[in-house]
User: What shape does this take?
Amino acid sequence: MARLHISNKSGRVRVNAASGADLTVDGAELRVDADGTAHVKGKSKTIDIRCSPGTDLVIGTASGSVEVIGQVGAVKVSCASGSIEIEHADEVDARTASGSVKVGMCEGECRVVCASGSVRVGGAGRAAISAVSGSISADDVGSGELKSVSGTIEVGANGEGRIGVKTVSGTVRITVPRSTAPTLNLKSMSGRIRRDVTEGGDYEISVGTVSGTIEVTCR
Assistant: This one.
């Protein structure tokens, strides 16, 4: 599997994984090790990269957005300030201090840590998302743990495993397939709790909040 390490001080990083594409780099230096690992080092301008699908990526930038287009392997992104957008990956580990994170589809574990900014995941085998302030939305999730201090959390569970949510203040909305019957463990110190599902033992949904509404409904 091809491996690509990218670093940039400031400026946008854009990676396009296209079928049949050779590795090309615009806006930065390229070095390839004997084992085939490629290193791209930029300074303070936009970097555009084309690579083959399935490439593993490690991306680090101090300031600037990161965009990954196409289907790639495991992606690890660290960004001090700037948005992160990943279209399709086998695994995701995305961390930003300030900026939004958007993941289209993650086949395996999708791990996101965001201090300030919204998080949106279109689908994941497992979601592990932590945010301080900002909304979290995760659709078509097999299992997951989601945590936030303040902000709305919305989860679309597909019924494959446990969903755990913890928040201090903010509304929690979870939808489940109508054909499933989860075990519900819902606790709110001050806030309305709505249960509009058939309860059973198919999988567990656990939600804890200090102040905020909890809703679990079918779709």
About this structure: The CA atoms of residues 84 and 191 lie 33 Å apart. Residues 1-99 form one domain. The mean pLDDT is 96. The first strand starts at residue 3 and ends at 10.
